[in-house]
Amino acid sequence: MADEADSPESRTSVYTTPTTGPGFRSEIEVKRSRFITVLARTPDEEAARTVLAGLRKEFHDARHHCSAFILGPDRDVQRSNDDGEPSGTAGIPMLEALLKRETAPGVADLSDVTAVVVRYFGGILLGAGGLVRAYSESVSTALELAPLVRRSRFRICAVPVQHAAAGRLENDLRAAGYVMAETRYEAQTTVLRLALPDNPAELARAVDRVAALSAGSASLLREETAWIDVPIS
Question: What are phi and psi of 111, to 5 degrees?
Fold first, then answer.
């Protein structure tokens, strides 16, 4: 899937995020207390708070609804809340679990994610250390199982060509492995559109490839950027 999100200020062109959907759930039990973790993809703070509000309503009889979220390609929005647990024993460990989660060896880039841990008290006090471990483990366990995708920033580029030449050039571009965006039809030309990784080296290679495939008759014009989900292989 793709949506337009032209963000030239973003330093990052790829990060990892949960798949879209209602949210992934898992549960652990620690000394009879139930810890239900929900991980949801959230593009902004409003979405994160909507997820939390929905879970407060669904699990209205639970004692705690602790939360943490990271937002933005650069992970510059980070929040956590203990929701009545002793200060620093729930929200911060949850946030740390999100921040330190490696999505590839040596790579911790998870973002646009909200974690909510619903706790049903089991009657046995866990102590500060026990709470930290339980909330951290609850989120880490969910992250081990939750489906994730790479969120990559692509540069949409236009290639205007004569109508008669468009079909062949499009086939050649696809055969060369390029991802095609929606074609635009204008009065004098067909505008083929490519989704290219948004970095100078890839764009330079594409310029040369388009020129070669079209015998110099077509050029590459930069347009907007779009964030596209790419499955993790």
Answer: -155, 180
User: All domains of the chain, ordered by start, with CATH?
Assistant: 20-146 (3.30.230.30), 152-231 (3.30.70.240)
Give the span between the Cα atoms of 130 and 70, in whole angstroms: 24
Full DSSP string of 130-191: HHHHHHHHHHHHHHHHS-EEEEEEEEEEEEEE-HHHHHHHHHHHHHTTPEE---EE-SS-EE
1: pLDDT strictly greater than 50: no
Instruction: Report pLDDT for 9.
Output: 54
What one-character DSSP code corresponds to residue 53?
A: H
Mean pLDDT to the nearest integer, 79-88: 97
pTM value is 0.83
- The half-sphere exposure of 115 on its side-chain side, counting CA atoms within 13 A, is 38
